[in-house]
């Protein structure tokens, strides 16, 4: 491609580009096709593993772009297969420390694929890929609230960060979707950036982009109002999941085209 990349879109998956219940993305297809038509890039950014994202990225026709995996703890490079023997040193170090912490946390590494399938609602094969981790450990807390505070204190003292996103408590050595977003922006230098997400772990990404779009998710409490919503830099969709995604991205592209056609700015 010659010239400057016009637009780079960063998108969360579950509850944003994918339907929260069915994982269907087809309602977003018209908007994705239109983005491809103008040469825009789409960067998938998710708590999913490289092994989970790679086949989905293929299906979406987005394998020419890197993807942000494991909630920003790592990148899956453009064209790279997710099922390769990626370096899991960081994950192994994390698991070693977790064994020393107060009990009550059950991580994916403590579960088999059937357990992960039950917990996530993913089909068996997808659950197996969700368990192929390189950077971070999602899991559930089964102890008391008091015990959780003690666990989190001990984790922090060992350099471990904890985040709640969607259904899980996820532990890692840090790195956010926004950190990886910075890395990708530096690489591609797009004319404009847009981010879409539905949950607290997307907020930094929404704030970092030129335009942020909060996709409605009726299955969760709505995100509290963000500062940038007052001036319209961050907006909300009315429809959930891929339908909201398409609604927002088609409207944004209409608006950008209109500004180009008329020469108006802002
Ligand atoms: Mg989500």
TrEMBL record:
InterPro entries named in the record: HAD-like_sf (IPR036412), HAD-SF-IIB-MPGP (IPR006381), HAD_sf (IPR023214)
A GO molecular-function annotation: mannosyl-3-phosphoglycerate phosphatase activity
UniProt superkingdom: Bacteria
Keywords from the named record: Hydrolase, Magnesium, Metal-binding
GO biological process: mannosylglycerate biosynthetic process
Keyword Cell division: no
Entry keyword Iron-sulfur: no
Pfam families given in the database record: Hydrolase_3
GO cellular component: cytosol
Cross-referenced NCBIfam families: HAD-SF-IIB-MPGP
Protein's name according to its UniProt entry: HAD-IIB family hydrolase
């Amino acid at each position: 491609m010659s010239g400057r990349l016009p637009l780079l879109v960063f998108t969360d998956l579950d509850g944003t580009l994918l339907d929260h219940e069915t994982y269907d993305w087809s309602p977003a297809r018209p908007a994705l096709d239109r983005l491809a038509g103008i040469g825009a890039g789409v960067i998938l950014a998710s708590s999913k593993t490289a092994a989970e994202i790679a086949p989905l990225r293929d299906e979406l026709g987005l394998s020419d772009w890197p993807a942000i995996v494991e909630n920003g703890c790592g990148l899956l490079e453009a064209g790279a297969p997710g099922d390769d023997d990626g370096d899991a040193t960081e994950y192994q170090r994390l698991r070693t420390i977790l064994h020393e912490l107060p009990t009550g946390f059950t991580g994916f590494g403590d579960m088999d694929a059937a357990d992960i399938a039950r917990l996530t609602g993913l089909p068996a094969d997808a659950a197996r890929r969700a368990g192929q981790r390189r950077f971070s450990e999602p899991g559930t807390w089964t102890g008391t609230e008091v015990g959780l505070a003690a666990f989190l204190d001990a984790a922090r003292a060992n350099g471990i960060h904890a985040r709640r996103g969607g259904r899980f408590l996820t532990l890692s050595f840090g790195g956010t979707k926004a950190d990886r977003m910075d890395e990708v922006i530096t690489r591609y230098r797009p004319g404009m950036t847009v981010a879409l997400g539905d949950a607290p772990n997307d907020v930094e990404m929404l704030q970092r982009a030129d335009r942020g779009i909060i996709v409605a998710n009726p299955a969760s409490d709505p995100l509290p109002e963000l500062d940038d919503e007052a001036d319209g830099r961050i907006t909300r969709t009315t429809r959930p999941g891929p339908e909201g995604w398409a609604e927002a991205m088609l409207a944004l592209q209409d608006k950008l085209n209109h500004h180009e056609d008329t020469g108006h700015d802002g």
